[in-house]
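Box 3.1 — From sequence to structure: DUF551 domain-containing protein
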Amino acid sequence: MSDPAHDNQSLDSLLANVFRIALASLEAEPVAWKATFTQIDNEHNTFTTMYSDKAEVERWVRLHEIGDFRAEITPLYAAPSAPVIPDGWISCSDRMPAQDDWILIYSKHGEYMAGQVQGEYVELSDGTLSWLGNALFWMPLPEPPQEVK
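Predicted structure (token representation):
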């Protein structure tokens, strides 16, 4: 059976992650600027340059405006070095877990199950298999705690 409280919690968690990622991209600072200059009376006289300093691009824009050029400035942002991996639930429609990963799944039947990925199935602790096709969301299980000696 489906549990509406857990469905809403999972959806809320997923939406929170989406908004967190979107907000992070809005707060990113440009690493460079692309300036395309076009002469106002001669559209064929166009050139593009790159600048690493915002003050420098603004200075060149002012100088070219004196010479009857218009400028189109585009901020450039650094690409992330690795794909963003959400901290919580991952939608199965976005990405499936890798072979042999230990995961927690939330199924379309409202069940939570933990186990190891074996092909199209998750092998549960009792040795039974659960088909991954029934999973809506999954997350990697954390490493077990280390014994302190």
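Summary of the box: The first helix runs from residue 4 to 26.
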